[in-house]
Structure formats: C-alpha cells, structure tokens
Amino acid sequence: MDFTITLYNVFIMFFYMIPTYILIKTGKAEPQHAKTISAILLYISCTCMVFNSFQNIKFDWDILGKIFIFFLVSNILLILDIVICYLILRKKYNEPKYRILTIASAFGNVGFLGLPVISGLYPDSSIVVCYSSIYSASMTIMGLSVGIYALTLNKNYMSLYQALYNQGSISIGLAVIIYLSEWIFPKVLGDAVGLLSKMSTPLCMQILGMRLATVNIIDLFKRPFVYVASLLKLFVFPLVSYLIVYFLPFFDEEFKASILILSGAPCASVILTLAELFNTEQELSANVVLVSTIFCVITLPILTVILDKTI
Questions:
Q1: d(CA 274, CA 103)
Q2: How far is CA 232 from CA 10, 30, 58, 145, 241, in A?
C-alpha cells in the first residue's frame, strides 16, 4: 500500500471541484445547473460505471460468489451501524439532528469517492470496482428503506418497491445478467461505456463544487454537530466494519481492504436528498456532506496507513 497514492487520488478529486466553484462565484453558471449535472451523473455515468466494472472481469462463479457475499456483508454492516446509533440515540430522536446523525454515520459517497482510492491501491484488480458498484447499490436499497425509517420513524414512508426498483438496482441486475451471458461489449461500445464511467467522480466533485460555492465557508464549520457526524462516518464506521471482517479467515485482502476504504467514504448526497424530501434539517445535511468530503483528504490516507499495517 502507498500513502501517497491515496493522497494523490484525494487531491485530484478535490481539484475537480475548483472549476465549477469558480464558475458559480463568477456568475458564469447558475446553482440550479447542478440538477442537470446530477441527472447526467445518476442516469448515465453511474449506469456505465456498473456495466464497465462487470465487463472488466472474466466470468467466474467464484468471483460472482464473492460479489454476492460482499453485497450481503455491506448491507449487514450498514444495518448494524444504524441499529447501534439508534439504540444509543433513541432517547434524543425527538430532535431531527440526531436522526440525521444516524443515517450520516452509515451512508457514504462510495462510488465516486471510495472507488478512485481503492482502484488506486489495487490498479490491477477489477473485482474491487465491482465491490464499489455493489456497495453503492447497497446504499441505495438501504437508503430508500432503512434510511427513510431511521429519518422519519414512520413505516408508511418505506417502500420496498422504490428500494428495489431504481436506477442502481436495475443497473446491477442488467450488468449481472450480461455477466452471466458472458457477452463482452464490442470495442467501440466498451470504450464509450468505459469513458462515461470515468466521468462519475469528476461530475460528482463538480456538483459538490457548485454547492460549496453557494454556502458561507465560515458558517459551514460553525456547527460542532457536523464534526461528530464526520468523525463517525470517516473514522468510526470504517474501523468498526474493518474490525468485524478482519478476523474472518475466509475474506481475502481485497475484500477486507474494500470494506475499510469504501466504508470510509464521506457522507453520501442521498442524506441531503432524504432531508429535502422530508423537510428535515436540510442545511445541517448539506453541511455534513460538504464537511465530511473536505475532511476525507485527511482520513482516507490515514485509513490507508492502517490498512498497510494490518494486511
């Protein structure tokens, strides 16, 4: 493992934020343009990222089994984190900020911020990219079911249909079907899908740059609560998750490393989406996403060092 690899990848990701930040500040672009970029990111780049990850691994039942196990483990870890937070904070759940804290501690920007780091650490491994795609799918399913309940405490808002029938789940399902058929995209199509998939991280960071340009930087860091949420998401959750899988001998190095690094991705934008949907602590949610993203420049390299010392 190389500390500098992670640090380099994190700095590159932050570099992507600068152009759109400047465009918003200079009036060359409008904040509402972020919605259009978000649609391109979600429906085009994210879908291509899933297809591309499965296209780059040779068909093997053992690999498919590992991916399925990773899906199960990632979901279990997410549920475990939310349940623990709920048990600790349930007496304070009448305050919305503690419900935000619960989901913020678990849901991370895995596909866009975790993927470049784990890919940089294992550049010759295609399965870690699949792990990232699967983890993203887990976030979507859990976010639209367990996450909604944790935020609202109302089962009526939960929808199994919505949790399973969405862009992420459909993309994973189609990618697995194509993987099982052993159909490899023609070179032109494969190159196009690969290029679009590589746009995911830059687009995500550009959206964050636009959002960062609309807030007061000083005010962003004035709420101590965002530091607590960031600490839980960036450090506590990944270390606990890593500790759980570390002593299990049937998980290999790539599996364990992916759990640690992907779990350490900063808070996901789905937190803000849910907050806006249910009109609950929108400003706090936006601050948590932005601050945790800024702090990951410190925590992700630290997690890499821990990984280096333990693997």
A1: 10
A2: 19, 33, 37, 21, 12
Q: How far apart are CA 211 and CA 214, in angstroms?
A: 5
Burial state string for 42-79 with b = 16 or more CB within 10 A and e = fewer than 16: beebbbbbbbbbbbbbeeeeebbebbeebbebbbebbe
The Cα 169–Cα 3 span in angstroms is: 33
Query: What is the C-alpha separation between 274 and 152, in angstroms, rounded?
Result: 10
CATH number at residue 179: 1.20.1530.20
Intra-chain end-to-end CA distance of the chain, in Å: 9
> Structurally, how many domains does the chain consist of?
1
Name the pTM for this structure: 0.85
Nearest to 107 by CA among 92, 85, 130: 85
Instruction: Give the other-Cβ count within 10 Å of 144's Cβ.
Output: 24
Residue 171 buriedness (CB in 10 A; 0-12 / 13-18 / 19+)? buried
- Give residue-wise pLDDT tens across range 39-92: 888 788 888 888 988 888 888 888 889 999 999 999 899 889 988 988 888 888
Q: State how far Cα 205 lies from the chain centre.
A: 12
